[in-house]
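Quick one: structure for this chain?
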Amino acid sequence: MDIQNHNYHIRWYHFAILILIPSVVKFLLIPYYIGADDAYIYLRYAQNIVSGNGWSFNIGEPTYGITSPAWMLIMATGKKLGLDAVNFAMFISILFWTAIPLIIFSISKKISQSNIIAYLAAILVASDPWMIRWSGTIMETAAATFCATLFFLLLISAKSSKGIYGAFLWAGISILFRPELTLLLPIAILWLIFSHKANFKVILISAIIWLVPVIPWLYYAYMQFGTIIPNTAIKMGGFLGFSTNTAVQIAKVISIYLPGLLVAIFLEGTNIFKTIKKYWFPLAFFFSLILFYVVKTNGLQSPARYLLPALPFFILFITGIFQANRKKIIAFLIVSVIFYCLVLGLLIVPTLRIYKDGYLAAHKQTGLWIKENTPPDTKIAVFLDIGVIGYYSNRYIYDMGMLITPEIANYESRKQFLFEKRPEYIVFTQRNTPISQYKSLCLGEYLIPIFSYTIPKPGVGKQRTVYIELFKIDWNKVEKEIRDV
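Got it. Here's what it folds into:
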């Protein structure tokens, strides 16, 4: 492969570097990281689906407790084929990540008409610390980012209405990987109107085709779960306003691009308005996703994970500011890569090691203790993170965060729910203080301590000490007090 443009040659080994960076850096620095607590929710669902126990976390109780039905089916397919679910999902995730820089190269080449600008964008995406953190995990993040970038490439490459229809079909499939990718639809329609000058018939047919892969799943979800909205979206909140907390989290994520952006503006500032006009589509998706989270949530547990489908588009814009000037591009690349390395080495790798040795170890030990010291029919209430504990305990879980137990919302309080269901144990996770939440549930006097862990700074998104504690609930004491009254 040898592409030439402006006397710059892109050969096969340049593409090999793009393909290798995410996987090599991942397995050298953080091979143990398969994802956050949600990764184990996926594993539990995959286990139940393959075992014939339905689309459920608790056997026999179908719930829409996962974000990505398409990713869930990929994981379940691997397990059904007799493959290890973790290794199979990691392999598929790596395949998606290796394709993303190549897609970004193609997009940038089409817009900038420059090989060196296109390769610059691709190499920055391939070496992006947030990309590396989530590459090779068993989460849907890689697949969702692949879907978003491929849709944009298909759309701008379309030479006819058939090409446009194919792009919109892919956009419909994409929201089965991440519901927020629905934001691509209105932006794409605006692109058809203003950039492609498409007529009304093409726009209408495109929108209908977008619905083709969506409607069957919505029908299945409604019949199976009684809702078409994932519980993850409901849990994300009915919040509607401006969340300073979410805005600050997002600002921290995108701050790693600030040095490169400042260098680009300093060296090629006269091109910035022309670049905004040229890259308005990717910028529109980037900012619309940010706006969605800022007005819809009051905090994100792993903000980079949610933003990743749009981050390559921001990198496209930053690199698009440059003209094909080798010296300026090299200066920009050096600054960006140095800052990337600092973020990866000083922030991401250390906090993920703490995650492994702190958060993950504590939750795993809690789940294993429950499995080894309780009968199989024991029921456990968990407040809030259910994935690791549910996976390793293999017990029935009441999710006080309402991800897999949404019916809690029908009760006047969590206390009322607990008093009716009578779980034998309760686990508190990610508490700021070790006792405040128990009082709020009015169970403090009925809790018998089993053990507790103190976990320092469990992740990039949570720079604070948290606690995880397991208690047995003394329902005999409850009954006695009720009789005495």
